[in-house]
Structure of 3-phosphoshikimate 1-carboxyvinyltransferase:
Amino acid sequence: MSEQTMTQHNVRYLAHQGGSVRGRIRVPGDKSMSHRSIMLGALAEGVTEVDGFLEGEDSLATLKAFRAMGVQIEGPDNGHVTIHGVGMHGLKAPQGDLYLGNAGTGMRLFSGLMAGQAFDSTLTGDASLSKRPMNRVADPLRLMGARIDTADKGRPPLHIHGGQPLKGISYDMPMASAQVKSCLLLAGMYAEGETRVTEPAPTRDHTERMLNGFGYEVRREGATAIIQGGGRLTAGVIDVPADISSAAFFLVAASITPGADLVLEHVGINPTRVGIINILKAMGADLTLSNEREVGGEPVADIHVRYAPLKGIDIDDEQVPLAIDEFPVLFIAAANAEGTTRLRNAAELRVKESDRIQAMADGLAAIGVEHTVYDDGIDVVGGTYHGGRIDSHGDHRIAMAFAVAALCAEGDIDILDCANVATSFPNFKALADTVGMRLDVIEETA
Ligand code: S3P
């Protein structure tokens, strides 16, 4: 199968009502860090060894794109990848387009890197990625001197002209986006002078941490990250922790299922990613962290979660960027809580792999969960709900959220268009089985 047809088969989930959530599991590697490990490893001098790499379609697309630019990469083999870095100026012009699959992170971070290369490149993606806004990176990159053509309304594909000298800028991001911040920091390595990126609220800082780990200094002054152009990256060893965004499905699954008792091992608990823990705790969840340690510049812990009755809350605005990918499954927690959970200031959810406010609202309606939609959020009223048919709109996190919902539904939940679960969580079904969820995966080859 070519990469473009990787998810062309139809996958449907039949999530049977009931089931248990017990045991000890380790979910796959962090998606954000997996992308970045390939990018920085490829541009470093020397050989980078990565463990815990996510073998999902998104990060594999990044890996293939670097191979297409002449980087020798061995693996992945059980999460192990060996990258023979070519140095900051060692990439070769690819033969064709760089296909980045479903990955917004891939496209936005690549755009910063490719703007600094000597050759032209074209970045493409799947149907979902092709609808996502790219002016948020193209506009500031143009301010740095990049030449970038987009399709209508700033959508992909992006054609990036090589050989353009870049200069550092001072940029105030209009939205809290780690992808935009990372894009500009990566372009900043190729720019003359200093690039300063100020964020309106803290967002995940994996790029800054990993750059520092590769010996490329990123300074921080309050809300501003600062990088000086013209430096170099030194290869190293990267241990990617389990993805808290994947762990989130099981944190909620256990929190809502009477009798549940589950340990999630070696989960990344970077302070810019722990919104799911903070929000669930505020709702009354029983979560305990143990074995806290630091691995390769990132904090990790085991998370023990037991069933506890949840209550509805007003979600703190500050938690929104720290839990940005976890809202689909948090709405399922809210549907099982006593009272109403209110989310606002989360308009970014509308430009994810799907419009996650609308897609979740449609799904909640299909199973009888009372809710009210707002431009920038939703109110979800907890209570009982029935089974039904859900369209995930090809969004991995919508699909997995409703699989979790079935644990407490009064009927089975039939979830359409689930192939993209493979972008971030290829063994979701296997781990769901391990803990006692009752999920059938029905594959129909188109
Ligand atoms: C990511 C940043 C977030 C997140 C995405 C991964 C990253 O996107 O939703 O899944 O790896 O930098 P935004 O920067 O658009 O918020």
